[in-house]
Structures are given as C-alpha cells and as structure tokens.
Amino acid sequence: MTPSEGCEKHLSTESNSPMMEEVLIALSGLWLMLPALVPNSAAVLFGGGPPVDLGRSWRGRRLLGDGKTWCGLIGGCAAGVALGTLLMMIALPFDAQGLWGFGRYPEAMVVVLVLSLGSLLGDMGGSFIKRRLGRSRGASMPVLDQYDFLIGSMLLLLVFYPDWLLSNYWEGNRWIALLTVLVSVPLLHRGVNIIGYRMGRKDVPW
Question: pLDDT at position 64, please?
Fold first, then answer.
C-alpha cells in the first residue's frame, strides 16, 4: 500500500477527488524518498577519518577524494535508516500492513537501507565522475550534484526491489510522485547545502 492509498483510507470522502488523490501521490513521492535525501547531509556531519578510497589514485587522479570517508558512509547510512524507521513508526498506528508505502516489516527495513545506501553510493559515483573529469573536490557540476544520490538510490532499488520502485514511482499515475521528487530535489539540495555552508560544515554552498 502506498502512502497516498493509506492516507485516503483515513481521510474524509472529500479526499477521494482526483485532485486530492494527485496531491497525496505527490506527497507520497517525497515521503518515501526521505531516507535517501538525508544520508548525504548526515555524512557531512559524521565525516572524518580515513577516506573510502584509502588515498588511492587512478591515472593520476584520486578515485573519490578525501571528502568521502568511512565515518561519513556509515553515519549517513545510519541516519537514513533511522529516519526511515521513524517514518514507519509514525505510519504504524494507521497502516500496520503497508506502513504507508514502505511495505511489510521486516522487508520495509531493507527497502529503507537500500534507499539510504544507494544515496551514498550515488554520491560517490558523482565524485568518481568529477575526478575523472579533472574537477577538484567541492567543484560545482550542475545536474550531477543535484541528482547523483537520487540516481544511486533508484538504481539500487531497480536491482533489489524493482516492483517497489515501479509501483510507487511509475505505474498508473504514480509518475506524479516521480515528477514531484525530480522537481523538489534540486531545491532541497540547494537549501540544505546553504545551511551546511553557513554552519561551517561545507566549504562551498552547493
């Protein structure tokens, strides 16, 4: 059961209008993707220590760079899983069987883990591409900077939970959820990075 379907069961009959249904589908897209939106910001807070690439280079350039650390990877992934668990706890009294779209427990926990880990792997993939193109750490690369973590999450979902991904972000009118995420992510990404920059946790505001 998707979040929009779960909510519809507990709202008034007025919510069954096509417009309200589309609004709920749009909100469900953001709701389900939250465990993928948090890890990269959390990784900045937990960062430090040895880099994931262990300082290794390929063709004269670092594989990832010092910005991608094991502490950040583990901490960011843990933060995403923690948020996903919180979302499921919120949904539990209303939708114990479907947990508002994440699925049945304990499989829902694995979905959340895939979302979180995929986000960080996607961000690392973006860093790998930047290094190959000769871009230094922190250099801006529009589109890739905003969507690498989202691409990572969705690719990992396609490998392990393709039915979940398609049923929530493509089949029927669920493309509305996908469109909402694609439009919202750059705005959220920019806002969070500006906050991190002003807090002194990021060297650049992008």
Answer: 94
